Automatic annotation (TrEMBL):
<feature type="transmembrane region" description="Helical">
    <location>
        <begin position="7"/>
        <end position="31"/>
    </location>
</feature>
<keyword id="KW-0472">Membrane</keyword>
<protein>
    <recommendedName>
        <fullName>EGF-like domain-containing protein</fullName>
    </recommendedName>
</protein>
<keyword id="KW-0677">Repeat</keyword>
<keyword id="KW-0245">EGF-like domain</keyword>
<keyword id="KW-0812">Transmembrane</keyword>
<dbReference type="InterPro" id="IPR011042">
    <property type="entry name" value="6-blade_b-propeller_TolB-like"/>
</dbReference>
<dbReference type="InterPro" id="IPR050778">
    <property type="entry name" value="Cueball_EGF_LRP_Nidogen"/>
</dbReference>
<keyword id="KW-1133">Transmembrane helix</keyword>
Amino acid sequence: MCKPERNCYYVSAGAIVTLAMIIVGAGFSLIHKRASVTGISLKFSKGLVIQLNNSSLLTLDVATGNYSYVFETNDMIDFDFYSGHRLFINANKSIQTCSETCKGINEKYHFNWNVDAIVADKSSRKLYITDRSGENLYIVDIDNKYYNVVHLGISDLQKIVLDSLQGLVFISTPQTIIKGNMDGSWFSDIVQNCSVSAFALNRKEKSLYFADGLFIWSVDYSGKNKRLVATARNHVTNLVFSTGKLFFTTAGDASTAMSSCSVSNGVCSDITDTHLPGNIVQMKAYNFADWLVDNPCHYGSCEQMCLLNANQNYTCACKLGWRLASDEISCEKIHEYLIYRQDNYFRGIILNSTMNQFKKAFEPIKLNSIADGALTTFDYDARKNVVVFADSLTLRKLDLTSGSEKFFLENLSSDGVLALDWLSGKIIYVRDDVFGGCQRIVSRGIDDFSETDSSVVLYNDFDPFERVRSLTVHPVRGLIFFTILEITSRQSRISQMRVDGTEARSFFVDNFSDNINENLLAIDYREDRLYWFSADNATLHHTNLDGTDLISLNVQFLNNPTSVNVYENWVYVTDSIGIWRVNKNESDKHVQLINDVGIHSAKIFSKKQQILENVTNK
């Protein structure tokens, strides 16, 4: 019940109309269904849409106080109006849409990510979607279904609010509110170290209101000029602003109660309570006149996506898997990128992109369970667009286009050691002996994942106390290099052989006898050089493939390297804190590309890397 000092109003649900929504996801496939509905068209220019009981939407005309109708759908997570006659609803991790009168065709699109909060921007015709678990902001073009993704790297993303006129997007977390441009650039914290439960924009004043516990504060768009606006009776759970009034709900009130107050001189006064015909889950405020702004994208010539940014300008962007060309208008398909494995995901980022906010090469692909935490190495075929890898139980092939995996049960090396000969289409890997005997280096066709054992033993002349710990192949030169760890002495050496298993011998390096890190081995295919690390990881060595011309680089800045890959002028190294790019001639020229944990291995994915020329002699 309302407290005596407050005015109380009760609303009847008598005139509410119910209609059924059609489930819609997002992605690339369309499913057409016919909706049995009475039609939607908001009857106000300024108003609230309130979610009740996780399933219904009720509309309130702020000017008249009249309620109109309810939408019904199961397990509603979030919603937004794209215009007065088109609605997007997030239910069951999909986006549902109802267009025009909802009597025609409805579309269903499937996304590959979790859909949490959604905002539909009328002026730029875009959907903004957060994936809380992936720490991502997705921007989807409503018309042609193009999308790209900004990795914010911030956990527990919650509410999104846009100011299209200023080209700004605001996103809250439980502790902060961040602001960025609607083209996905220049995100920064504007509210910090608070318990942010809700926030709303005052677009006219270019300020925002946010709730911190019992208190409602205001700040400008820069996060400055903080001012106390109101004190609620309990923890504020929802907050919206419309026509000079704040509307909010609190945790301790009856779940049907909505409070409102007029904001005058920056302070809230005359708080009144209204009881609605259901439990209030969330609220959104709309002023459809705000959508009648000039869209600078109408005058642009972007090939794929046009995104608003600050100062009423726009930025051309490209869909995922493409990048902006030098003319900053057209798009070109990505042909090379950095692919890496982080925990149970394969991820890819674009290097040397002109748009730092759009760096993903593809959607992160989650792997099926990995036995005993293995999978330290992988290889790929750029022309087939597949990755091969292994744990101690299975040999696997991952299709980067579809995300599908194929498995073959094997008694593999516990280190998941393998390489791919892209010329012959053979996976070269290490098999443990079932009875604990010597290891074997074997090969199998990349497309041969039948139950029949068609593998070919290339080399098995190992001592029982020797273990192959890394392996790399040079298909053009017809050579395989691998490291051997002698378990009892803990000494390691490099060996080599032909790709057919013949001419096996130790790899001798002029004037070099130091112990090595047996886990790290790579080939520079352009320069025909072999790379490895010293046992203490402080030095990166490389020589010609015949062991001549030893060059050693100081890499003491690395922290426990776990993989190494060479492409063009750079060495790419993963360590315990991320991925580094190191100049292969001057190691003091290095940069950390990714600062994150859980990254086990990385390679440059490129067709140029995998030369098709077959030469037996250099």
